[in-house]
Amino acid sequence: MKTPLCTGFESTVGMSRRNFLNSFGMGLGGIALGSLLKPDALLGASDGRGVLGATHFASKAKRVIYLFQSGGPSQLDLYDPKPMLIEKHGIELPNEIRQGQRLTAMSGNQASLPLAGSPFKFEPHGQSGLEISDALPHISGIADDLCLVRSMHTEAINHGPGVTHMQTGSQFPGRPSIGAWLNYGLGRANDNLPSFVVMVTKGKGGQPLVSRLWGSGFLPSENQGVRFRSGANPVLHLQNPSGIDRKSRRMMLDRLRELHELQLAGNPDAEIESRIAQYEMAFRMQASIPEVTDISGESEQVLKMYGDDVKKPGSFAANCLQARRLAERGVRFIQLYHPGWDQHGGLPGGLRTQCRETDQASAALVKDLKQRGLLDDTLVIWGGEFGRTNYCQGTLSKDNFGRDHHGRCFSFWMAGGGAKGGVAVGRTDDYGYNIVENSVHVHDFHATLLHLLGIDHERLTFKYQGRYFRLTDIHGNVIKTALV
């Protein structure tokens, strides 16, 4: 038999192009192909380290707790007092104020757009004198810690695009979430807990909150958020099945890792590395999750500070306490979602309910972090996807009314982590309809968040489908007046 000149080429008969390249040159062809298809695939953070290696400059914050109020809280009834609306209650919204702005289908066909003054009273609080609604007595008590931004704006006027924009920097689904970007860039600070944790208040109605809001988009999948639930199993599918002990699980994972590494040797792919990393993280979490979710060691004084709901698993108060415990243990990005702020009707009663559920715990979280020395390097954020209109949606009565979505101006606040306390940033007009000073776009907010974590928002990028993407898309400026 004639000896072939190159058995490698002989063995390629009938092989796919991918297999040929993987076998040629000891796999270098496959690596080259992988780099063409996924240029950043070999830069994944499967070892727990972020791709940045180090921050671009000294950071003020080490971690973020984002209290997302889904549905669009009314800034006019909580954070942005407008005596003019009370004076002109029931009068038609002037055309020169509206300026032809598009309205949603829910109020765009109304024959009349009567102005609605707030039934809530605003008073100055703290040494700073920040004016906050009496619907928020506990948050009012931490006024000197708040950087209250009254001039946020977004192009979105409906919930799906609005929430997606706030969480990913784009109104279109498919982009990485804030926490995923941070996980990708900075990596983990605790090897036994995920870097990005999500909690949703249990039993609340409202607009749907889907997993893509905390997803990794086109980043390696290990960067997605891990959702914690209430109950005996906070993370789904984490516990071993009946009859499988921890030693058996370890042996199974070792053999599975060997198989994955064999696959990885012939097919360099970040998703295989991510899969290995996720299995290993899940194994470590089996031991760490029970400890971090057990609040039995918390003092009665602390529990009382968060309010009666703190002992109800899955409540906003319970999730706020859990967020503090996670922050203590090095979890970098903790996202709480509390739906139900969509008051198209029955606003006075509905808003009081929402505030009763969130006000005390939100303030307690800030105070708790502060007394433990954690607030200085923990950035706490409170806000929704847009605000509410200054006019009434539907029928305006003496004691009841609703407000439609309004993205042209709304409010949110930050505390700790390098945000300047006791200040109000930006200003809206006397009607609370347009911004007249220090406009802050969603991308400006994201640029500021990254800046406080030591990241230049223009330099944390990922190449996907021929384009370099970033959280702030193609623009964004740091809100310098909001920084210490």
List the helices and strands and how they pair.
Elements lengths: L6 H4 L6 H7 L4 H10 L25 E7 L5 H4 L4 H5 L7 H4 L23 E4 L4 E4 L3 H4 L5 E8 L5 H10 L9 H9 L9 E5 L25 E2 L18 H21 L3 H23 L7 H7 L9 H13 L4 E6 L8 H25 L6 E6 L3 E2 L16 E2 L3 E6 L7 E3 L1 E2 L6 E3 L2 E2 H11 L9 E3 L2 E3 L15
Parallel strand pairs: 1-7, 1-8, 4-12, 4-15, 5-6, 5-7
Antiparallel strand pairs: 2-3, 4-11, 8-11, 9-10, 13-14, 16-17
Helix pairs in contact: 2-3, 10-11, 13-14
Structure description:
The protein is an alpha/beta fold. It folds into 2 domains: 64-234 and 298-482, Alkaline Phosphatase, subunit A; 237-292. The chain has helices spanning 7-10, 17-23, 28-37, 75-78, 83-87, 95-98, 137-140, 159-168, 178-186, 246-266, 270-292, 300-306, 316-328, 347-371, 442-452; strands at 63-69, 122-125, 130-133, 146-153, 196-200, 226-227, 333-338, 378-383, 387-388, 405-406, 410-415, 423-425, 427-428, 435-437, 440-441, 462-464, 467-469. The strands form 5 sheets. Strands 1, 4, 5, 6, 7, 8, 11, 12 and 15 form a 9-stranded mixed beta sheet that branches. A two-stranded antiparallel ribbon has the order 2-3. The protein has a two-stranded antiparallel ribbon with strand order 9-10. Strand 16 (462-464) and strand 17 form a beta hairpin. It is globular.
What amount of the residues lies in strands? 5-15%
CATH architecture of the largest domain: 3-Layer(aba) Sandwich
Number of helices: 15
Head-to-tail CA distance between termini: 81 Å
Percentage of helical residues? Answer: 25-40%
User: If you compute it from the alpha carbons, what radius of gyration comes out, rounded to the nearest whole angstrom?
Assistant: 25 Å
CATH superfamily of the largest domain: Alkaline Phosphatase, subunit A
Rough outline: globular
